[in-house]
Design a protein that fits this description.
Elements lengths: L1 H8 L20 H17 L11 H9 L3 H9 L3
């Protein structure tokens, strides 16, 4: 969906990231955001650019900057697949 929106507006395809990445019925947590944002930020930085984060809630920024509870990380590691 994001790709189609960018094409309609003649915007560069990778101008925005982490937009329209899931169906609204799918769950997405601060932990998911942190993993996705760190990956995208590393990619942007590797291109010699500076990532710019806009929008969202402070919970997600806090998860990104400070990390998450070690208990949550253990749950992620040992969660059934």
């Amino acid at each position: 969906m994001a790709q189609r929106n960018h094409q309609k507006k003649n915007l560069p395809l990778r101008l925005y990231r982490l937009i329209d990445i899931l169906n609204p019925s799918e769950s997405y947590s601060a932990m998911n955001f942190r993993d996705d944002a760190l990956r995208e930020m590393a990619d942007i930085t590797a291109q010699g650019k500076i990532p710019l984060l806009v929008g969202g809630t402070m919970l997600y920024y806090k998860a990104l900057i400070e990390g998450l509870s070690p208990c949550l990380l253990l749950m992620k590691i040992f969660a059934p697949r």
